[in-house]
Amino acid sequence: MDTAPGWVWSRVTGLTDMFATPLRTSHYLELMNPLWTTHKLQARVVSVWDETASARTLTLRPGRKWRRHRAGQHVRVGVPIGGMHHTRTYSISSAPGRDDECITITVKAAPGGRVSQHLVRNVVPGDYLPLGLPQGDFVLPDAVPLRPLFITAGSGITPVMSMLRDHAARGDLPSIVHLHYAPHPYDVIFAKELAKLRDDHRRYRLRLVYTRERGERSPAERHFTAAQLQEVCPDWRDRDVYACGPQGLLAAVEAHWQGADLSRRLHLERFHAPWADLPGDVPGGRVRFARSGLEVESDGRTNLLRVAEDAGLNPPHGCRMGICHSCDARLVSGCVRDLRSGAVVNEHGATVQLCINAAAGNLELEL
Ligand code: FES
């Protein structure tokens, strides 16, 4: 049934829909196999694999509506926890077009991150997770010759791993310099596979930097610096750079390439919106959710989406970084602070994105 061509499937379900009303055939198929549905996309967890003590790869078999990703793209994953529906975005770590038609995501359990902790600790083979379609333009161009410089840290390696696997599978790894940061050797996700790539492909040059490992280097030298870049990749000006990792690394990389007037060569993949530097005593306030009648105290740094979730609400959301507008809500009264710019909005009736705004005094939201 999974292998029926798409047009056959649409014809059949088009006919049977006439008898399935008010539901659709897809709803009944979901009862038999959630991967056969056409009204929503889900994936079955096929296997789990611990990459490090805190990072796990989930192999997912997407349902019929899936379309092949490009190496470097990300996907939204729905994660039901305790009756609440959460959504998070993860880079796809597998190469496109695997023979088994599965994809992988590799999740690092963030301290205090309830969704990442759940995915790493509790999800088991046989579970089903709602899935979005692949998105994002953090991809290598089709045009050759390619001479990328990858700069990654921690789980920021995942989209780059998809690119490396893609090229390795095709046997045409271009000239690549890869600078990767991890706290310790045992924290390097995909460590063995990276070492094998380095050994098998002369044109893949890998430099691992351990940011918390004691050694001859000073703490400052263990993080991204111009001198380190020059040493690892003397021709960095001639390469397109693809960087993914924590905000501090991306800010340093961005400043360096801007300073060299080479921003056009810079491609960044962020896990979070870049937050402004707020003063330590930035005020919070009391947040009232008008429809539910709930009221909670909040500091001035925690985004209102998190505040609402902690209060037991389940607002719609997607990217959690100010892009998709799924979390838009109306500001009934009071002020919010845009965490990216630090600017305060006090326009009553304005639409605010909960994921990138925090309380700036007492406020009420239509939620
Ligand atoms: S969740 Fe996407 S903009 Fe807030």
What does this structure look like?
With 367 residues, the chain is of the alpha/beta class. It has four domains: 1-39, no CATH class; 41-136, Elongation Factor Tu (Ef-tu), domain 3; 148-269, 3-Layer(aba) Sandwich (Rossmann fold); 285-365, Beta-grasp domain (Ubiquitin-like (UB roll), Roll), CATH 3.10.20. It is 22% helix and 29% strand. It is built from eight helices and 17 strands. Strands 12, 13, 14, 15, 16 and 17 form a six-stranded mixed sheet that branches. Helix 7 links the parallel strand 10 (240-244) and strand 11 (266-269). The longest helix is centred in the N-terminal third of the chain and has 15 residues, at 6-20. The two termini are 43 Å apart. The mean pLDDT is 91. The structure holds FE2/S2 (inorganic) cluster (FES). FE2/S2 (inorganic) cluster (FES) is lined by residues 317-320, 322-327, 353, 355.
